[in-house]
Amino acid sequence: MNLHVEGLKADYRERPVLTGVDLVIASGEVVAIVGANGCGKSTLLRSMARLHRPAAGRVLVDGEDLWAMRPGDAARRVGLLPQFPQAPAGITVEALVGFGRYPYQGLFRQWSREDEAAVAQALRETDMLDHAARPLERLSGGQRQRAWLAMVLAQQTPILMLDEPTSMLDLGHQVEVLRLVRGLATAGRTVVMVLHDLAAAARYADTLVALHDGKVLAHGAPRSVVTAQRVRTLYGIDAHVIAAPDDGAPVVVPVVA
Amino acid sequence: MSATRSLYLVARYRAWSIRLPRRQFVATLACAAALLALALAALCLGDTRVAPPDLWRALTGQAPGWLNFLIGQIRLPRLLAALLVGAALGVAGLMLQTLARNRLASPDMMGINDGASFAMALTLLWSPAGLLGPWWLALTGALVTVLLILVAAGGIGSQGYRVVVVGLALANLLKAGFDLVLATLPAMHSGGLFVFSVGSLLGRGYAVALPAALGLLLLLGMLLPWVRTLGMLGLSDDLARGLGVRLPRVQLAALLIAAAMAGLAVSVAGPIGFVAIAAPIVARALAGPASLPLAAAGLMGAFMVLAADTLGRLVAAPVEIPAGVVTGMLGGPFLLWVLLGQRGRRA
Q1: What is the largest CA-CA distance in chain B?
Q2: Cis peptide leading into B21, omega within 30 of 0?
Q3: pLDDT at res. B2
Q4: CA B243, CA B343: separation in Å to the nearest integer?
Q5: CATH number of A3-77+157-254
Q6: Is B235's CB within 8 Å of A99's CB?
Q7: Would you call B262 helix, strand, or coil by DSSP?
Q8: Spans of all domains in chain A
Q9: What pLDDT sits at residue B342?
Q10: Is the CB of A111 less than 8 angstroms away from the CB of B289?
């Protein structure tokens, strides 16, 4: 499914944050939105996930206006993992993942065979089957993030939006989660995520969207987006951009002052 | 997947399916069994003790006339009133706690009971005979209170938190209003209002219990379509909205239904405290974290109010201790135990 953002403007606390964003995101792409703190990364993601109502512009999923849909219909197209998700205390992984089936359920459609299969599939894809019966609180940071991803996967949406999915994780768990996210895209899903770690974004995303002053500064493959000049514009620092020894992905090394 | 089968009971027929967490199902049955046992005991015990075989005869109308009257016209309607009040408080409390994601949110804390009581008290100012107003006045008072809270809080707001805090402030104002009425009334009328303000089931008959039963059934019917969505409120707001939950609407519906239930309870028995806090906490502890144990909370609330009323009748007989005093005496320590006992467990 294609995702189009047309002329998106959004305010936050009556201050304009996005001043006209246009984006075309293709099916199966992993897109990372990068930029400085407060540049509107999260607001853009939240506008695309129906959490922040834009002041102007449209978000189209296969040509359909996401903001004009009923909430349930939208929730079958776009899944969202917020930055700090919270679940009821003591809940098990399996029960948590079951929440992802809400958009498919009804008063007397509380747990269909499809629901059951989707939960099992999501647990399998995130390699969480063995932890299904464990309480969320007892998991390691990486496992916990995988459990949350499983919940969003159970929603079976073609588009996934992830807000800083690795912000609380150490390097090992970051890599674990980002590899998993890459794997999800190979299965045909579109993934849009906010990452403030430019290095991780350049390494694991197909496409980077660099936001600056409420507009898209650059949009494209990491190698074309990440240049010393852009790093300077985005973050106000001088840095070397070198190529990773294996695949040549850009690596940002700040200049010693 | 075998893990799914262990956590939930699922019944399916064609496209329809019903799911219940297994533990919640067991907890609900246990609450129902305990309530049934207590109800039988409550009917037998009192100034006049009735042996179980005689109780059976009285319930089926085969006992001597005085016994039929004692059971059928005095103890049974009072029992019914206690069950209704408790169930309404238990369910209302669970809904408010879920809504606010806070175990201290309840109609007592948020001023809803105070608003209902205040409305009842106001009627006395215009009643030369000193009669409390009709039952729907308490319900109206409760709903008006919630609307005031919403206006003052500027809507439900994020996480339902603000609503609780504003309610807390409003509760004191409404309490003061109630006390003002109490202070200005002639002494012969203020006594009745005082007993009402404590929460008591003394002398409640079918005239009170039947309309309340109807009202509660109606409210439970209104609640039914929201139950599934209420279960989603344990998730943070962004997550719930991302899953398609219509957030302000669900919260508003739940808040209004909960307020109406609390108002109904107050209209029958006055503002009986602590039950709306304690019953959902106990129900949740029994039913486990992955569920919204509405039935168990209702049954547990009914159990608590009936137990308080029955204890109040028995402990100092022939003097009756109002149910609201009993719940207060037991509820205070319970709350302390919950708050202090959970300190170590919370992250």
Answers
A1: 69
A2: no
A3: 44
A4: 32
A5: 3.40.50.300
A6: yes
A7: helix
A8: 3-77+157-254, 89-154
A9: 61
A10: no
Residues in chain A, overall count: 257
Nearest Cβ partner for A86 among B1, B19, B235: B235
Distance between CA atoms of B200 and B321, rounded to whole angstroms?
Answer: 8
Q: Which residues from B are below 8 Å from A when comparing CB atoms?
A: 1, 3-4, 6-8, 10, 12, 15-19, 21, 224-225, 228, 232, 234-236, 238-239, 241-246, 288-290, 346-347
DSSP B110: T
If we measure between CA atoms, which residue out of B332, B185, B210, B186 comes closest to residue B273? B332
Token pair 């293709």: residue: A26
Question: Is the CB of B238 less than 8 angstroms away from the CB of A108?
Answer: no
ipTM summary value: 0.93
In this predicted model, what pLDDT tens digit does every residue of A194-247 receive, in sequence order?
A: 998 898 999 999 999 999 999 999 999 999 999 999 999 999 999 999 999 988
Asked if B7 and A99 come within 8 Å (Cβ–Cβ), the reply is no
- Rounded to whole angstroms, the Cα distance separating B52 from B272 reads 30
Question: Tell me: the pLDDT tens digits for B319-343?
Answer: 899 999 999 999 889 888 887 876 5
In Å, how far are A195, B50, B80, B205 from B40, measured between CA atoms? 63, 10, 12, 18
- Cβ atoms < 10 Å from Cβ of B48: 12
Question: What pTM, to 2 d.p., does this model score?
Answer: 0.91
pLDDT in tens, B179-221: 999 888 888 778 888 888 889 998 888 988 899 999 999 999 9
Q: What is the DSSP string of B66-84?
A: HHHHIIIIIIHHHHHHHHH
Q: Which residue has the higher pLDDT, B283 or B134?
A: B283
Q: What angle do CA B246, B247, B252 make, to 5 degrees?
A: 110
Strand A3-12 with A56-61, pairing = antiparallel
The set of long-range contacts for A164-168, using a CB threshold of 8 Å and a minimum separation of 24, is: A164/A42, A164/A83, A164/A193, A164/A194, A164/A195, A164/A196, A165/A81, A165/A193, A165/A195, A166/A195, A166/A197, A166/A200, A167/A83, A167/A196, A168/A141
Burial class (CB in 10 A: 0-12, 13-18, 19+), A255: exposed
By C-alpha distance, the chain A residue nearest B247 is A71
Structural domains in chain B, CATH included, are: 24-337 (1.10.3470.10)
Exposed (0-12), middle (13-18) or buried (19+): which is B171, by Cβ within 10 Å? buried
Give the C-alpha separation, B4 to B21, whole Å: 10
